[in-house]
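Project outcomes to date are best conveyed with an example. Our students and postdoctoral researchers have been running inverse folding experiments weekly, and each run begins with a structure described purely in tokens. The record below, which covers 283 residues, was selected by the lab manager from last quarter's runs and is presented without edits.
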């Protein structure tokens, strides 16, 4: 029997991990940078309409639609396309919401130990030129949707899935989480304390993708998380974090509540992810 034609090419000789990293970053980040172009050139609300249309086309293509036909099945597999049961939808939604709560609770706890650098978080996210407050909220919602869809497709789909098949889920989740963290370190808000939080987000999303067999719940959780990040922590149109570090005010009742929310939401997302694994294996 002849050798597989794919492995005759130079690209086919590149290790799976390297190929997955390159493709995942390109598929995710090129698409994610279309939204800023629409926002600047078309303005609001036309830019938002164009971006939603683009994301719909992007998902259709990434899931196996359109050319090239010879990579249709590979694209569908990388996108983790497939049907879901009612139980999967239920537990996936629980996992998505609790994931978003976990990350926001982790950020709150971080800034109970160190002062919140509001200016650094706000840098680059001034929406005062967008127009009304309603348009500013729409920018945050669409920005969050763009990041969720594109980054999950790239990192938990096209990067993580091929590595899972070749090297197993642990290696794949660690690698996708590492690169997910690295692409966010260029931001002004990427303080040293934010690094483990972003890495934790990548781990939880990677586990959720593996457990559920779909990117839908990762996208949903990422979208909910990013709406809060854009509106509260970055653009600050929903308010600004006013809690003071415990070294200034002491360990107060709010701190215990914040710790409890973080612990409870983390337990819920892990339990829901475990349940999704069980359901998927039984199917």
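After processing, the design step wrote out the following sequence:
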């Amino acid at each position: 029997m002849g050798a597989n034609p794919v492995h005759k090419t130079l690209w086919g000789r590149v290790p799976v991990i390297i190929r997955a990293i390159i493709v995942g970053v390109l598929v995710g980040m090129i698409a994610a940078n279309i939204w800023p172009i629409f926002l600047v050139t078309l303005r609001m609300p036309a830019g938002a309409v164009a971006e939603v249309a683009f994301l719909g086309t992007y998902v259709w293509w990434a899931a196996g639609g359109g050319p090239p036909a010879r990579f249709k099945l590979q694209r569908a597999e990388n996108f983790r396309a497939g049907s879901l049961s009612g139980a999967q939808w239920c537990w996936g939604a629980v996992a998505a919401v609790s994931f978003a709560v976990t990350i926001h609770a982790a950020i709150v706890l971080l800034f109970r130990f160190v002062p919140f650098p509001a200016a650094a978080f706000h840098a680059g996210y001034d929406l005062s030129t967008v127009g009304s407050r309603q348009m500013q909220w729409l920018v945050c919602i669409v920005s969050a949707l763009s990041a969720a869809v594109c980054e999950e497709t790239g990192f938990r789909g096209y990067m993580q899935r091929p590595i899972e098949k070749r090297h197993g889920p642990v290696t794949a989740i660690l690698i996708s989480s590492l690169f997910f963290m690295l692409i966010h370190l260029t931001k002004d808000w990427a303080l040293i304390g934010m690094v483990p939080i972003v890495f934790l987000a990548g781990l939880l999303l990677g586990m959720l993708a593996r457990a559920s067999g779909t990117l839908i719940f990762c996208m949903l959780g990422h979208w909910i998380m990013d709406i809060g990040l854009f509106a509260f922590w970055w653009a600050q149109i929903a308010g600004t974090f006013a809690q003071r570090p415990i070294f200034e005010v002491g360990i107060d009742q709010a701190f215990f509540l914040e710790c409890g929310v973080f612990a409870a939401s983390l337990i819920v997302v892990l339990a829901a992810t475990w349940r999704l694994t069980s359901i998927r294996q039984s199917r």
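Residues 15-68+85-282 form one domain. The radius of gyration is 20 Å. The training component of this project remains on track.
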